[in-house]
Design brief:
This protein is mainly β and 276 residues long. It is 6% helix and 45% strand. The protein folds into two domains: 160 residues, Immunoglobulin-like (Sandwich); 102 residues, Sandwich (Immunoglobulin-like). The strands form four sheets. Strands 6-7-4-3-2-11-8 form a seven-stranded antiparallel sheet, with no helix packed on it. A five-stranded antiparallel sheet has the order 18-15-14-12-21, with no helix packed on it. A five-stranded antiparallel sheet has the order 13-20-19-16-17, with no helix packed on it. The longest helix is centred in the first third of the chain and has 12 residues. The radius of gyration is 25 Å and the shape is elongated.
Length: 276
């Protein structure tokens, strides 16, 4: 049941993971901050992203079930990343140094209880934290305290923010704007396209402006044209909205059939319901 994960972190804290701060009297609530070094990347637009959370320790890191990433929220220009850790052995974080965490007026980050599910299907409750992010791509101080009551200094950074794809709409029929990239630039698909959602799965009806496509491939699966009368029409799965999706279309317009790689993006802000 993955007992080695919490145990490894507990041993790390007992042995002195990171740089322990000098012993001080019990801390009192308040506030403190630590400025990052360097300028960082350009500010992100408000929204929700997934981002890498990098640390300076092999024992203080994001849970393996999260693939090294957390959920980054940008609101009114302020950034916060939520990360799920490997156990419940880290009981507080502090956005600054260990010394600052024990000073007058220091306010510690409180944990949440997160449920993570590993690749083998086993789930576990661990602690998670909402960490203020001063800048993207810049290291900053983040101190931690374990169940033994000792503070340790660490440096962390948040990198590679990627917008989270929009969730699938409710089951039903829609139209959705689609953009096409790739190929020679001469081919096109009708936009908006018909989008069918069934059981949470999305399927688009793509109408090409040429009758010369005989099949498409999506994630290695081949889909035959449902019509080649003046246009080529396919119904293909759509894995996510607002995300460039790689697809292949085979054309017979040349002397021999030729597969062409395309990227299609379906835009959630254009969704319109279709009345049956």
């Amino acid at each position: 049941m993955r007992k080695w994960i919490p145990l490894a972190l507990a041993l790390c804290l007992l042995a002195g993971c990171g740089t322990p701060a000098p012993a001080q009297s019990a801390p009192r609530p308040g506030t403190s901050s630590s400025a990052p070094s360097g300028g960082g990347e350009a500010p992100l637009p408000d929204g929700v992203y997934t981002a890498e959370f990098e640390t300076d320790s092999g024992m203080f890191h994001v849970n393996e079930a999260c693939d090294g990433r957390g959920t980054l929220t940008v609101e009114d220009g302020q950034m916060t990343i939520h990360v799920s850790l490997v156990s419940q052995n880290i009981v507080h974080l502090y956005p600054g140094t260990a010394e600052e965490a024990q000073g007058d007026g220091a306010v510690w980050l409180e944990p949440t209880v997160d449920t993570v599910t590993y690749s083998d299907g086993i789930s576990e409750e661990v602690y998670g934290f909402d960490v203020p992010v001063p800048a993207i791509g810049v290291e900053f101080d983040l101190a931690l305290i374990g169940s033994k009551g000792t503070w340790y200094d660490h440096r962390v950074s948040v990198r590679d923010p990627q917008p989270l794809p929009a969730p699938a709409p409710e089951d039903g029929a829609y139209t959705c704007a689609v953009t096409l990239e790739g190929g020679s630039g001469r081919a096109g698909v009708d936009s908006p396209a018909a989008l069918r959602v069934e059981g949470g799965a999305m399927f688009a009806t793509l109408v090409w402006d040429s009758p010369n496509y005989d099949y498409m491939k999506v994630d290695g699966v081949q889909y035959l044209a449902v019509s080649n009368e003046g246009t080529s029409v396919f119904e293909v799965p759509v894995a996510a909205l607002d995300t460039p999706l790689a697809m292949v279309a085979d054309t017979v317009a040349m002397s021999t059939p030729h597969e062409v790689e395309y990227t299609l993006t379906f835009h959630s802000d254009s969704l319109q319901g279709v009345t049956p």
